[in-house]
Predict the structure.
Amino acid sequence: MFELKTISLFFITAIAEIVGCYLPYLWLKHEKSIFLLIPAAISLSLFVWLLSLHPTASGRIYAAYGGMYVFVAILWLWLIDDVKPTTWDIIGSIVALIGMAIIMFTPKNI
């Protein structure tokens, strides 16, 4: 159960971070409304709060979260940017997820 909760929380956290960065990108690069910065700020605040919900050391959380972020960013590339991931994108995402699992789910007393 701990593993499923952690993975789900990381997934939602990555969405919040990506949305928080994507909206200013739309404003800066695609001349969309400056008002996109308001939901971007809310999304980034949500991102920070979600990271704080994990019960382990913050450095471990940041390191492990990075693996899920890579995976979700590649999903974003495919689903939002409509760019098909390459085989290497997929392999890299899998490697990142394995790294996340090693950091989060292996015994800590070694």
Q: What stands out?
A: DSSP finds four helices and no strands in the chain. Residues 2-105 form one domain.
